[in-house]
Design brief:
The complex is a heterodimer of chains A (418) and B (136). By secondary structure, chain A is of the alpha/beta class. Chain A has helices at 14-27, 37-47, 63-71, 90-98, 111-190, 199-212, 215-246, 259-269, 271-274, 295-317, 374-386, 414-417, and strands spanning 6-10, 30-34, 51-55, 81-85, 103-106, 255-257, 278-283, 291-293, 325-334, 337-344, 389-395, 399-407. A five-stranded parallel beta sheet of chain A has the order 2-1-3-4-5, with helices on both faces. The longest helix of chain A is centred in the middle third of the chain and has 80 residues, at 111-190. Chain A is elongated and about 125 Å long. Chain B has 136 residues and is α/β, with parallel strands linked by helices. Chain B has a domain at 44-91 and 99-111: Response regulator (Rossmann fold), CATH 3.40.50.2300. In chain B, 37% of the residues lie in helices and 20% in strands. Chain B has helices spanning 11-21, 36-45, 62-72, 92-98, 111-121; strands spanning 2-7, 28-33, 50-54, 77-82, 103-106. Chain B is globular. The chains are: A alpha/beta (418), B alpha/beta (136). The structure holds adenosine-5'-triphosphate and magnesium ion.
Chain lengths: 418, 136
Amino acid sequence: MSPSARILVVDDDATIRGILAEALAKTGYETLEATNGSEAEHLARQHEPDLVLLDVAMPGEDGFSVCEHLKSEVSTSDTPVIFITAKTNPAHIERAFSVGGSDYITKPFHMREVRARVCAHLDLHRAVRELEKSQAALLRAQKLEAVGQLAAGVAHEINTPTQFVGDNTRFLQETFSDVVALIETLRGLSSADSPPPSADQLISTIREALDQADVDYLLAQVPRALESSLHGLKRISKIVKAMKQFSHPGSSEKEQANINRAIESTTTVARNEWRYVADLELHLDDSLPPVPCLLGDLNQVILNLIVNAAHAIADVVGDGSQGRGKITITTSQVGGEAEIRIADTGGGIPEAIHSKIFDPFFTTKEVGKGTGQGLAIVHTVITEGHGGSIDVETEVGKGTTFIIRLPLEAAPDRTEAA
Amino acid sequence: MKKILLVDDDADLLDALERNFRPHRHTWHLTTALNGAEALSLLQERPFELVITDILMPEREGLEVIMEVRRDHPEIKVIAISGGSRKMSLDVLDVARSFGAHKVLAKPFTADDLFQAIRTLLNEDVQASSPEQSLS
Ligand SMILES: Nc1ncnc2c1ncn2[C@@H]1O[C@H](COP(=O)(O)OP(=O)(O)OP(=O)(O)O)[C@@H](O)[C@H]1O
Ligand SMILES: [Mg+2]
């Protein structure tokens, strides 16, 4: 029983409407009544009921059309709709479901049946919502964990250039004091106070000063130190930028995103995950149009697949003494879809577990290395979040390729697609 | 002259540290290696008094270098340097210490920190007043 639920009763027949509304109100539901389609849509938009009981045959807009309209609006698209109608032919019933209806009750009805069905659908709807919520929570939790783990890698990636930029700067500082000493010597030689030295003296003093300042070494090394420092600073800012892009708060609305850039920033942030075991090759199609996507989620998908690829390669090459593997990421446009391929030269996936890899908590990794959530999240994000698809091609001993396809046009509402 | 081997997989870092060693060229002779494998073969070829090694490197990790040095050349002193770990939960420098590194330095460190550590390990401390007695 769900006493707090609000139910919209739509019927042009005042008697039927009254019976339904009264019985439901007695059961403890809050009820709203509408006598025709447009009134129903208006009330639904305004009060966002938890369930709609909808007559099919009404003057003006019929129930099927009302249902289609409700399903195409964000605020009411999830609301369960139960049709109540006198028509019983199968084509009619089929139509009720195809426009997004959740159930179908025929007149004359028994109030007990109506109550039971209403209650069941409210429970079902609530359960689905809970599931969605916990799925979203899981996604957030994994993202936080990933960001935490990446932070360690990112610190590592930043510490090295910080080290050598510091070393170079210190070298330049010492160099400069040597150069200052050299200049002082030359100044002394040119000052009028001291007696003019002989040419030989002059030459030997200058030589000595140049030697003292290690000039040949400085001339060779100062430009290199400067260049290396600039390069180091560029490395630092690249990773900081990538981190910022990767940890993009991830709006709940899709945005037109440059997938190539998302891949670049994610691979940069995750560099520490793969660089000890594999080389990375990116073949990113510059002409790929923007793709409507949830960028934060997509970054996480790419990360999960890269980490999996790196793990699979590490299993084959060990600590690197057995050579290195390769991860290749390719983007392209295939028909109306953007395709991302993430290929690795790891050990492949044995036939026996093909069907399980996308299952939540399925893992072949030891505790601490994997929890088996990675691909489950990848699957949810790609199929449910983006209306895309994910496929695997794998060969034991050769490697694995994950193929993601994302529609270039924002997915139409799922009821229209039906 | 004391011979020192410096191992790191980052060429920029090797060059930069090498520049800082330049003023000490009359006391220390520095050789560099870009990975663990190269370091281990250099160690077989000629003697060193001290090895400074990064920990996380492709082509044989620094831990392996430390292990082999401690096993085959127990007289060589070892300084481990690292910019952190791949996993948050693991402090690689602690691990390096337990593998037998005499001294560990977290990147970024200053060249002075490094030189001080070298002097201490090679017993070149003039005043022998090193505040740090965290050796081995
Ligand atoms: N590229 C790959 N090559 C070989 N096997 C793979 C690959 N990607 C996934 N797998 C297999 O699929 C399993 C499930 O992967 P999934 O990413 O869901 O979980 P996990 O990597 O084990 O743990 P988590 O991602 O939660 O840290 C892995 O344990 C592994 O056996
Ligand atoms: Mg995984």
